[in-house]
Amino acid sequence: MAKKRSTHRYSPKERRQVEHIEQSEEARGHSPQEAKAIAYATVNKRSPAKHRFSAKEDREAEHVAESEEARGKSPEEAKRIGYATVNKRRSGKA
């Protein structure tokens, strides 16, 4: 039987950090949804080099970015659109 590849995007330590930041932000008066968003954004900012996308997702984003650049978008905007598209597909909304 083949070993199933883990799809976890965050380490246990990062999950604990998210939980702690989320609680702190709620204590500061933020809504639970806003506190969660702040917590994940903070953890992501602390480890920007860590891979949050699989190699396949990176290739997809690069392909979309190349297409967008060919349509006249700036490289920065094209990259943003590429990863937004991958995120949308990942969440099942596309």
Would you mind describing this structure in some detail?
- The chain has about 90 residues and is mostly helical.
- The chain has two domains: about 10-45, no CATH class; about 55-90, no CATH class.
- It contains four helices and no strands.
- The protein has helices at about 10-25, 30-45, 55-70, 75-90.
- Helix 1 (about 10-25) packs across helix 2 (about 30-45) and helix 3 (about 55-70) packs across helix 4.
- The longest helix is centred in the N-terminal third of the chain and has 16 residues, at about 10-25.
- The radius of gyration is 16 Å and the shape is elongated.
- The two termini are about 30 Å apart.
Please outline the major beta sheet: none
Question: Can you count the beta strands?
Answer: 0
Could you tell me the mean pLDDT? Answer: 85
Described by the principal axes of the CA atoms, the overall outline is elongated
Helix content: 55-70%
Oligomerization status of the protein chains: single chain
Structural class: mainly alpha
Order of SSEs, N→C?
Answer: HHHH
Helix count, DSSP H or I runs of 4 or more residues: 4
Percent strand: under 5%
The number of domains:
2
What Rg is obtained from the alpha carbons, in whole angstroms?
16 Å
Distance between the termini: 32 Å
